[in-house]
Design a protein that fits this description.
Layout (H helix, E strand, L loop, with lengths): L20 H7 L5 E5 L3 E6 L7 E6 L11 H22 L3 E9 L3 E9 L17 H16 L4
Antiparallel strand pairs: 1-2, 2-3, 3-5, 4-5
Helix pairs in contact: 2-3
The structure holds zinc ion.
The site of zinc ion (ZN) has 7 residues, from helix 1.
């Protein structure tokens, strides 16, 4: 058991009635290009329509906001994002990661981490055609780098 298993969530809220796409993603990894997870958080690659590849780091449960997380989990959420920086830059051959933060589906706190080169304009980031297998290869590459450099404990 890792230290994180002993942490509590803080103030999780009940998920909204009806299906939640992210809860379904957490429960069933079919087709998910995950790059890292622990008891509380999950990171995976995705390609929003027309956008560059991004890693999404989410809470596995619904919480009111990032501030509802216990301090240890709050700290870990951002520590994981920082730890993913190097593996993502390496795997995508980019020199920076742009970060977008928010809450979606009534309670999943997320960080979008988008590899890109500083100074890129226009079609910035790493583009792939959806469903052509490249995401699987990229996710494996990120996992291998995480495993090799042991950036996340
Ligand atoms: Zn959910």
């Amino acid at each position: 058991m890792s230290d994180t298993d002993q942490w509590e969530w803080g103030s999780p809220i009940e998920p909204p009635p009806g299906p939640c796409r992210l809860c379904a993603t957490v429960a069933d990894r079919e087709g998910l290009h995950y790059v890292w997870e622990d008891t509380y958080f999950l990171a995976f690659l995705t390609v929003p329509a027309g956008e560059a590849v991004q890693a999404v780091l989410i809470t596995k449960r619904h919480v009111d906001s990032i501030y509802a997380l216990h301090q240890q989990l709050y700290n870990r959420f951002f520590a994981v994002a920082r730890a993913l920086d190097f593996p993502l830059r390496q795997a995508f051959g980019k020199d920076s990661i742009s970060v977008k933060f928010g809450t979606i589906f009534q309670g999943h706190v997320y960080l979008n981490l988008t590899p890109s080169n500083s100074g890129e304009v226009g079609r910035a980031g790493y583009h792939v055609a959806p469903d052509d297998g490249q995401l699987s290869v990229l996710a494996e590459s990120v996992r291998n780098i995480i495993s090799r450099v042991k950036v996340i404990t």
